[in-house]
Every structure is written in C-alpha cells, then in structure tokens.
Amino acid sequence: MNKHARQLKIRELLQQNRVEHQHDLLRLLKDSGMTVAQATLSRDCAELGIIRSRTNGSYRMVVPDESTGRIIKGLVGVEVLAVNANETTVIIRTLPGRAHGVGSYLDQLRSPLILGTIAGDDTVLVIPSSVLNISALIAYIHNHLSTT
Description:
Distance between the termini: 42 Å
Radius of gyration: 16 Å
Helix content: 40-55%
Largest sheet: 4 strands, antiparallel
Number of helices: 6
Structural class: alpha+beta
Strand order of the largest sheet: 3-4-6-5
C-alpha cells in the first residue's frame, strides 16, 4: 500500500462515514484491509489538512475543500486566545480541545518559518526553523490566524 492510495482511502472513508476520532478512522482502515500505524495516520491527517468540525453537538473529522480555506482561517482564528514567544519557541493558547486543529492548520500551510508543531488540548508549541526568525514567525502566525 503506498501513501497516495492510503490517503485516497482516508478521504473516501471520511466522506462516507461519520468519523469522530483517529481511533475510529484506524478501525475503518483496518476493516477495509489497510493496517496503518497511528503515527502514519497522524502524518496523513496533517498532510491532508483534516480538521475536526463540530456539527449537531458532536465532532466529525473532515477534509476541507479548497473553497473553504477562508472559512477555516476565520474559524481557526476564533479558536486562538493568545500567541506568545520567548527566544526559541512560540506558544499558541487556544480554546479547550482546539489546539490540534490549530496545529494542523499551521502544518498545512507548510511555511518555511515553521520546523514543526506539537499540539496538546489547549496549547500549540510552534518550533521555528530558526530562532533568528521568531519575530517573522509571530507576524506570520498573526497574519494567517486573523479573522479579517
């Protein structure tokens, strides 16, 4: 099974099923004959830009289409409470349970300023590609998380 085929299957499963968590997606992949490691699925979800969307009182994993980019930017911006930094890293505080979505959104942008992100429940650790670019990274984050 190659990456492209796996990611196509993930898109298909998300379109055909109500999937709330990666655990559910892992089970659906296994049921369809694809055994995938959790770490591989997490990378695939980040690469595909998969987000958790709240609908009718519950969450659902979805792959946003290109036309929803502005809407997602606005939604992600609303979820961010604060952006702070020191000499080496940037921390983004989010609403409870929304850090993963914010981190995935930033990963999807593929900025050369960002080496990587790590998301908890309400905090995203953004690791810059260089500590010399902290100010530029903060400006970039503010620009891409603004609701205007």
